[in-house]
Each structure stands twice: as structure tokens, then as C-alpha cells.
Amino acid sequence: MRTDARAVVIGGGVGGAAVLYWLARLGWDDVVLVERADLTSGSTFHSAGLVGQLRGSLSLTKMMMSSVDLYRSLEDEVGLETGWHEVGSLRLASSEERMEELARQAGWAQTFGLPLDLISADEAGTLFPPMSKDGVLGAAYLPTDGYIDPSQLTFALAEGARRRGAEIKTNTRVTEIGVERGQVTGVQTDKGSISTEIVVNAGGMFAAEIGALAGVIVPTVPMAHEYLITRPSGLPLDLPTMRDPSLLVYFRGESGGLVMGGYERNPAPWGLDGIPADFNGKLLAEDWDRFEELMRNAIVRVPDLADAEVVRLINGPEAFTPDGEFILGPSEVRGFWIAAGFCAHGLAGAGGMGKLVAEWIVEGLPSLDTWEMDSRRFGGDYANRDYTLARTVEIYSTYYDVKYPGHERQAGRPLHLSPTYPRLQELGAAFGEKSGWERPNWFEPNALAGEESLRPRGWAGRLWSPAIGAEHRATRETAALFDETSFAKIEVSGTGAAGFLEHLCDNRVARDVGAITYTQMLNERGGIECDFTVTRLAEDRFRVVTGTAFGRHDLAWISSHAPDDGSVAVEDVTSTLACLGLWGPKAREILQPLATESLADDDFKYMRSRELAIGAVPCLALRVTYVGELGWELYCPMEQGLELWDAIWASGKEHGLVAGGYKAIDSCRLEKGYRVWGADITPEDTPYEAGLGFAV
Ligand SMILES: Cc1cc2nc3c(=O)[nH]c(=O)nc-3n(C[C@H](O)[C@H](O)[C@H](O)COP(=O)(O)OP(=O)(O)OC[C@H]3O[C@@H](n4cnc5c(N)ncnc54)[C@H](O)[C@@H]3O)c2cc1C
Question: Using alpha carbons only, what angle is made at residue 335 by residues 330 and 336, rounded to the nearest 5 degrees?
Fold first, then answer.
């Protein structure tokens, strides 16, 4: 076995094989894959093999499309069968809501160049003769979907990698991962050690334990997933795959019989106290009790299933994640990469995922916006196994549900509370959740001042309140008070801090003490990796304030670029500071009587910060706005956040101050054209393309 390599991939499932294949294809021939047992002996060998391409975002869908591109050509390239069947797919709608969901998906698919058609129930029945059309209103048909043989695909990818010089070592278990000064140095296996600066954790359901070897949290939970196989009964061999989300089930043809599985409402997490060290090439015991719900539903759609002979019920564990998306990319340990958490889409995703991760490693950047799959989207909360488990179970059990705009997850809540929480409750807050923080979306009593006639039609109107409009108007006409404690706050300090931030930011941030600068941090292609404000607190201290969900990502981006000579310290101070935003034309009148300093325009200018007291509460006041109105963000010690809220609230009463929620912030910032990273602007956009040239 090699004793050093340019990269070591851990795990010989379809994920690891795909990353190895693409690393080799991109020219890295000095790479090795280590697998503790045999190739495909984790989740891969028992996969149902369905390959669907349409996902919830452009990047995810492009990745799946790129899988199909590879699956079409791989067999010819390596001369090994892959079992790719491009039979197309059907997704049925049996309610008006589902039809609307399909119509949206069809529009969505068009923008990606996917040939998805909306067809009638009769047309669906012709394509999939064993189905009953009862209650079916229509279907979406995607002719380029299909299914593939999981083991054949993995062996073909492995062969493609080997031919380009990659080495594969089976029966080789990684026992330790070397990390020095935050950088990977190699892996220790039961067959010897390999020095390397790049390790890819493609450990499937074992990814969490492999991550732990490097001190990296990989929030995956193995979930038992089941499907049955029927004896061949003369069904057409080219049946499309078929999903009936309302009945929670999926089907595909198998040698004239059927494969049928689904996402039950009472899922079964597995191996929570550790996966047995010899769990390879194994399945779990058939669990007919849990499968009964799916069986009943499946017979509604395919009545002949009631009499079909079941050859086998497959029950196998698979790594799911707390938000149902893959976990890909670099981690806070330099050189430690993750390619795991495929949530029963590992076959569909492998081809494109391997390409994306390999490009990211080889070229330093991914070719797509990867935020939804980025390993750094999960904060430290996911070290809490109960929280991770609760979220993951919710994701699995609601997998096929229609998710309306503004959908909020419920599991594991409440987790982080602002000190103002009891007051926000008293004021009637309708809470949402972001990165574990409870945040008001709006305050229901404000609905009385809003207009019900403005409720958006259809989908968008379901999770909505007239209060949003009322709070928006108050922000523009009087004033509104917002709790923004969940903002991620990062302090960068030290003798080298100014020079370091000047190097990393596209705007001038090392200006005089008190200056606030709106800036981005860019990648090598000029794409926007971070978008936030930087406030200079002292000659050698800066505070970065970024979106609630971006804390871990931005912290990792900043830390990974920081010098390791002790001249710069980077610290997450989110939990030490409460933050309230007071905005609107009356903000000054409300705040001035409480403030120890003059808030007059000449004394406290836009994009400046000052230490002052509001009542008895010491604050750092920032004259910035994300809603485009006069006002301040006030940062104070966490334990005084409620006192600060109460003082401002009392002063604001006579001025018509209202409590505002995040939906009003969103509506105000949209009105002013302020961007949101991850949605409006991404690592694929430069500041000039995004209209942010003024900040460069
Ligand atoms: C019942 C079922 C049905 C499914 N159906 C579909 C489907 O229709 N379509 C679809 O796209 N996906 C489906 N999936 C999901 C798909 O099978 C998985 O997403 C995919 O196989 C995961 O591949 P992987 O490489 O991440 O993990 P694995 O295949 O589990 O590979 C990880 C490997 O890492 C190895 N390993 C672990 N620890 C170490 C160590 N310390 N040292 C060395 N090696 C180590 C393990 O031995 C294992 O071989 C299904 C899954 C199940 C369970």
C-alpha cells in the first residue's frame, strides 16, 4: 500500500468511488481509496437504485443531471455494465395542492432544461399500466430519469479510477486521522499509515464516526429504509419509475415484477449507540409492522400488489441529515473533506456529486453554488445528538409532504432563546426558527392594522399574515423594534487583524475606529463567499455581523484564511450579545431620551458606531439599516437584552412604536434591493455582476 498520497478517500460505497473516479479523471492519479470491508458493502449494495433529477434547487438539480450524463456513458468508457435504464419517471398528483406543486416543478424544470411534461391521469396509466387512476388528477413525466444497478455502478466507477492510476485498498480500516495545527496530515489504518494533506470522508452512515476521528461534527443519522421486491409477473420491462407522494410510496420495474418502497410516518433511526464494527454486507431484519402503512397505500395505487408474491423485504440503514440535503465540502479542519449524508439519493447524486467535490478539491472552488449542501451550514448545535436526531426524524417522516413557502420545521424547538423571548411571546409573536434560534416572523396582533385583501393567492398565502404589511408600513412611517439577537457575530482581533481583513475583504475595512463597512469576501474567481458588515471596535479589534444561518460558514471562511502565527484571533461571540434593531422615521425621537450621547445626524452619522448607554444598558450602537430606514442596531450584554427591549418599548409607546418580525424585514429589504447571500448573491456571482460594485 502507498505510504503517501495526494488524497485519501475513506469509504468504498458509491460516494467514495465517485469522488475517486473524478479525482483521477481530473488528473490526480496519486490517490487512494481505503475501504474497511469490500466495495459496496455499506448502504450501497441494498439501494433501490432510482435516479430522479428534479430537486429543490438549481445546483442540486444540475448535480443530478450531471449524474445522468455520466451514467449514460460510463459503461462504454470502462467496458463494465452499470445497469442504467433510462425508463423515465412519473410523479402523480392526487389533490389540487399536488397539481399546483407539479405545475411549479414543471416551470422550475424548464429553467434547468429538464424535459418535464405535465400529463393526464390516462397518459400516466398508459405509461404505467398496473396503476389505478382513482383520484389521480395528473402527473409529471420526466423521460430522462431512470434507475441503475448500485453495485455495478460502483465497480464501474472504481474501474474507471483504477485505469487512471488510482489505488483501491479493500479490507483496510481507518483507525485514526492525523491533524496538526488544524491541518490533516494523514490516516492510520489497520494495514499501515498513509501521509496526505487531503482526506475525503465518504463513510456513508459511518461518516459521523469518521468525522469524530478528525474532531469534525458530521450530523448524519442512520435511518432504516425499506422496500420490497415482487416475483416477476409479466409487467413491461420498460416501466417508468413512479412516485405517489400523497401515498408516500415509490415504484420501479424489476425483471417484470416491481420494487416498492417509501417514506413511512414512523421512521426507525438505527445504530444510535454506535454502528457495530462488523456491520458490512448486512441488512436489518424485515420490519413488516413498520412497512404496513406503505403496503396499504401502495395497494391503493397498484391493486395487483395485494396478490403479488413478495420475494423479499429489504431493510437497510442509510445516512440521513437534519435538513434532508447532502453534506459536502471542506470542514474547519484544513484538508478534511466530507462527501456523505445522501438521504437515500446517493445513487441519483453520486455521478454529479463526485464531479463537484473533486473539482472543489482540485481547483479550490466548486463549479456550482453549493450552499444548501455545504458541510458548514450546520452550526455547533448539531453536536447535540438529540437535536440532530429530532430534526432528522422530522425530515424523513415528512419527506413527501408539500412544503409551502415559509414552511417552518418543528422538531427540537425551542433551542436558542433571545432574552426578550418572554416579552415577544406576550406581544403575540408568531415564531419561526433559523439555525436553532426562535425568531418572530410577525406579531399576530399587528394583523388588525393590516389588510387581509393583500394575502397572496394560492401557495404563498398559506403561511402569511396581514401583520407583515402592517409592520412594514410602521417601519416606513413611524418605527418598529426588531429582535435580531440571532445575528452571527464574529470578532477578529490581534496585531495582524487590520492587515488580514484588508487582504480578505473587497472593501476598505481598516478605516478609523468606529467606522462600519459593508463588504464582501471573495473567492479566487471573484465570487461572493461572505457578505456582511465589519465594524472597527479598536485599532486591533473588528466585529463582523453576518446572517444567522451563515455564522459557521463565515467563521470557517475567515478562520481558514487566518495566519497561524498568533497575530490574528477569530472568535464567535454570537451568544454573548443581544441585538435589537430600532428603525423608522421616529427612531431618533424614541431613542434620544434614553441615550447618554447625542443622536443628532451631525453627531452620529450613518455607518458609524459608538459606545453609549440606553437607559441603564451599555450598548454598542451601530447606525446601519437592513430595512432602509433611519435607525440603529444596538448590541448589549446578552443578560441585559430584555431590559433594553423594555426601555425602548416604554419610550416608543407615545410614538406608535410596533414590534416587528423577520417577514417585515425581508419585505423592507426587498423593497430597497438589499441582497441576501445564498439566495440573491452566491459564490457564483461577483460584486459587479450583483450590482455591488460600490462596495469594492
Ligand atoms: C433501502 C435503501 C434504498 C435506497 N434506495 C435508493 C434509491 O432508490 N436511489 C438512490 O439514489 N439512493 C437510494 N438509497 C441510498 C443509497 O443507497 C445511498 O445513498 C448510497 O449507497 C450511500 O453511499 P455512500 O458511499 O455514501 O455510503 P456507503 O455505501 O455506506 O459506503 C460507505 C463505506 O465506508 C466504509 N467505511 C466506514 N468506516 C470506515 C473506516 N473507518 N475505514 C474505511 N472504510 C470505512 C464502509 O464500510 C462503507 O462501505 C437507498 C438506501 C437504502 C438503505
Answer: 60
